[in-house]
Amino acid sequence: MLVAVGMKKKKLSILLLFESVFTVLAGCLLGIIASIPLVYYLNRHPIKIGGETAKVYERFGFEAIFPTSTDASNFIDQGLIVMVIGLILSLYPMYKVITLNPVKAMKR
Q: Which residues contact 102 (CB under 8 A, 6 or more apart)?
């Protein structure tokens, strides 16, 4: 619609890029903030594995618990990976805007 009313495709592509960056960044930050209390709790109270699985763990010399790590690099690395994936996925809408024919789009 913006292209049909006169907005340049380059400006619309940049607008979509910024929108994608801010959306992905906000999602990453909120995801990290929401997961910190859960990971901290599970670090203090790890999940105990029971039954046959616990016996298999002990037979191989492992403790039958599911520990978590509160190392900050885990959160940062995962956030960066999600950011990169989000930016790569934002290329598709930019491609669609660049190849858009406004007359055909308005007919749909």
A: 3, 4
What number is the average pLDDT over the span 17-42? 88
**Which of the four pLDDT bands, split at 50, 70 and 90, describes residue 41?**
very high
Claim: this prediction has a pTM higher than 0.85? no
**Predicted local confidence at residue 73, as pLDDT:** 85
**DSSP per-residue string spanning 18-35:** HHHHHHHHHHHHHHHHHH
CA distance 86 to 27: 10
- The token pair at 37 is 């209390």
Q: Which two tokens stand for residue 87?
A: 């930016």
E strand or H helix at 65? strand 65-66
